[in-house]
Please model this.
Amino acid sequence: MNYKSTRNSAEVVSSAQAIARGISADGGLFVPEEIPQMSLEEIGELIEESYVQRAEIILSKFLTDFTMEELGYCVRSAYTAEKFDSDKIAELARLGEGTYLLELWHGPTCAFKDMALQLLPYLLTVSVKKTIADKEVVILVATSGDTGKAALEGFKDVPGTKILVFYPENGVSPMQKLQMTTQEGENVGVCAIKGNFDDAQTAVKAIFTDPKIGEQLMSRGMMFSSANSINWGRLVPQIVYYISSYCDLLANGDIELGEKVNIVVPTGNFGNILAAYYAKHMGLPVGKLICASNKNNILTDFINTGVYDKNRAFYTTSSPSMDILISSNLERLLYLLCGCDDAQLKQWYADLKESGKFTVSDEVKAKIQAEFSAGFCDEEETLQTIRTVFEQYSYVCDPHTAVGVKVYEDYKKATGDTTKTIIASTASPYKFTDTVIQAVSPETNPSDDFDDVSLLNILTGMPVPQEISGLDGKEVRFTRSVATGEMPQVVRELLSL
Ligand SMILES: *Cc1c(COP(=O)(O)O)cnc(C)c1O
Model:
């Protein structure tokens, strides 16, 4: 199976090339030429298999130029008992009748990004070997928090890779900062920058395209790559857990083979919900895909009106991983829905660049609304939802997951749809202790992050993930903070160029 660029359908590459390159030279994203199919019978057969085996089978349908040995090596290296605190890898919890939370945060950094970023380093190194010969891959990341840590853990000590992460000195939570500055591994580097996330991102992009650094890298047998969610290698691992959770519901007797389920996803860059869309179109019985946004509700407006308009205020919320105005992966959905019309896609994205907005045709809008429903949840409702979920079900959810729960409750009220539903739970509440404490115990004052961890444990009885408790007292390895202008120098030093 080949992949083509959303902005140039004539640009056709193998899956290994798509993963090694990350993004097409025309600025488009790589999508598979067709969506591989799975019959109900095939899905039913997966019930007997482990997560690793399910992943191997599902990935083999998309990554057809990988051998089964290569895929087996990748998934077995990624989804191990040392890295995930659940042997099921992703857990299902019940939230009342017919509602299930798919907990995607049992990996080493306690956020759902681990599900893809534990596997990506292996997919990427195998892809590079297959397509570009033996080069050492240098991953450069600018992060606002979660991605940087998940990428560091994923690439830590992976042979043939190095990873350098830049984060805004005052733009991440104390817990996120501690997670990064104490990072272990011989091939990792972490550096704070004086500036915000956009400054870090812009400087990283400039380093990527700096011809002098490029030459120096070449002469040392190295190449840059990206762990960003526009890489197909980050999207494809996410398809697995939707199919896998359906199999778990079957195995538990909660649903019958062929019974439809709805899927709710707290959404930012549109990657996670797009993976659910792919699972559905492979043959997984799915009814509605419900897109949940926080106060940055650009996707709610788009799905309801067909107008994508980023000329609006940007809000910093308690669910920061969804604070985003350009949802990159939406481009992949639009390409599929407009019949792979690359000229149309180019036009919409040119409009977005020029005027900050584009409008899809009524036909495309109707196709979107046939499959997706959308809603949003503001800051007060997020706190309220964490509180009521805790009171009603003794279940502690993080602010991102709470957004999903609230939008689903609204959807159910508005439509009367009682189809059984899977809600993606995207982070451990221990990553966002101040908000969760404020919700479950408004009279308590959260203090510094480590006291908050034990406080939340006392208030809720929820066990503290070992990955969080293990940070207490851990040696800080990376204390450097530089102006963005010094970033190229830092890269040279860390890579000994
Ligand atoms: C990244 C992230 C999201 C958003 O996922 P997208 O794939 O970008 O839509 C939601 N919740 C958490 C905790 C995240 O880290």
Notes: The longest helix spans residues 232-251.
